[in-house]
Amino acid sequence: MFRKIAMFSLVLFILSVVSVYAQGFGGQRMTPEERMNAQIKTYTEKLTLTKDQAAKLKDILTKNNEEMAKVREQMQGGDRQAMMEAMQKNRTELNKKIEALLDAKQKEAFAKYLKEQEEMRAQRQRPPQQ
């Protein structure tokens, strides 16, 4: 009887460890580098960027990430509203820089993509319907 309980406990333990491992130890977040690479991949697919455009986009995103890290550091523990405004201003400037890389067709696709992103952001912020 003791062996059956011990084996059952061991199986449950192994299954729980496998489950946690499969979920990435509590849903680890992407590093800034991974997030940037994912953004570049998304933009490349959605906007059909050339290799040259993708390389320039990487430079833009790298500089933007550095700027945003400074903003977060300066405003840490400070005025949340001011930080949100600074982030919005940064996002607007970033979008202008990205748009400057694109041709007319890509600009249309970019505008559509931004609209989709804004709609998704609004969906996440709405309270659930009852």
Describe this structure in words.
With 130 residues, the chain is mainly alpha-helical. It folds into two domains: 1-29; 31-125. It is built from six helices and no strands.
Key structural traits:
6 helices, mainly alpha, 2 domains, single chain, 130 residues
Quick description:
This protein is mainly α.
Distance between the termini: 51 Å
Principal-axes shape call: elongated
Order of helices and strands: HHHHHH
Which structural class fits the helix and strand makeup? mainly alpha
In helices, the fraction of residues equals: over 70%
- Count of discrete structural domains: 2
Nearest-integer average pLDDT:
83
Main sheet properties:
none
C-alpha-based Rg, rounded: 22 Å
pLDDT below 50 for ≥5 consecutive residues: which ranges? none
Note the beta-strand portion: under 5%
* Strand elements, count: 0
Figure out the total of helices. Answer: 6
Layout of helices and strands:
Elements: H1 2-22, H2 24-27, H3 32-47, H4 51-75, H5 80-101, H6 104-125
